[in-house]
Design goal:
Helix content is 31%, strand content 26%. The chain is built from nine helices and 13 strands. The protein has a five-stranded mixed beta sheet. Strand 9 and strand 10 form a beta hairpin. The chain is globular and about 45 Å long. The two termini are 18 Å apart.
Length: 234
């Protein structure tokens, strides 16, 4: 076995509903199946870190940690967390806090950015959107992450931002048909604004899309995106 496959990376996806984790080798292949726990309420940093500690307590050994977080993250510091509670997550150094608990080097990035690293082909301008509790986005140019934009907070109507317009709550409130009509509008906006070469759609509600997508749009799974944990450390 060569050194590249011996390095083990604990990869964690913090979501509005669940905290999921697995271990990857450096090539991005799963060493073990996903495990998950419900996201604690209230989702304070203390509670999230305690949940992660409990979730991975019986995991095999790992060398590094990669984390996807649902909010604005810069250099491992969390600035916003709209689906966990912004009031809890004001300039929380999650790199440092989680590293102290797990005893390993940690890199925390936005969850859509982590997905993007996992699924992007590395050719041209690629965009990733995640349809889950909220609406996540990532942009990559030739495989490299571009500065993160919290597009979910941008108004898409006079009264609603993207989170409110097409997030999980909206899906439940307005139903599948109306949500799909909204998604058609959103995809038209993204196509016009970003002129991406390829768009990837991930997240729990990606399977609810019932209309034909453009040829340069691909639906991917969270398991595809989790490979970003390995690429984050490359």
């Amino acid at each position: 076995m060569n050194a590249i496959s011996e390095t083990k990376i604990l990869t964690i996806d913090i979501g509005g509903s669940h905290v999921k984790a697995t271990i990857l080798n450096q090539a991005g292949s799963l060493v073990m199946d996903y495990k998950k726990m419900n996201t604690p309420r209230p989702a304070t940093p203390l509670n999230i870190i305690a949940t992660i500690k409990e979730l991975v307590s019986a995991f095999p050994e790992y060398d590094k940690v990669a984390v996807g977080f649902p909010g604005y993250v810069r250099d491992g510091v969390v600035y916003t967390a709209p689906n966990l509670g912004n009031e809890f997550w004001k300039q929380i150094d999650l790199n440092k806090e989680l590293g102290a608990v797990l005893g390993k080097p940690v890199q925390v990035v936005n969850d859509a950015d982590l997905q993007g690293l996992g699924v992007a082909s590395g050719k041209g301008l690629e965009m990733v959107i995640t349809l889950g509790t909220g609406f996540g986005t990532a942009l990559l140019k030739d495989g490299k992450l571009l500065p993160h934009l919290e597009l979910s907070h941008h108004p898409v109507t006079k009264r609603k931002n993207y989170d409110e317009y097409i997030g999980e709550k909206a899906f439940k409130d307005i139903g599948e048909d109306r949500w799909n009509e909204r998604m058609k509008r959103v995809l038209t906006i993204l196509k016009t604004v970003f002129n991406y070469d390829r768009l990837y759609i991930s997240g729990g509600n990606a399977d609810e899309l019932k209309f034909k997508l453009d040829d340069n749009i691909t639906v991917v799974t969270n398991k595809d995106g989790i490979k970003g944990g390995a690429r984050l450390w490359q």
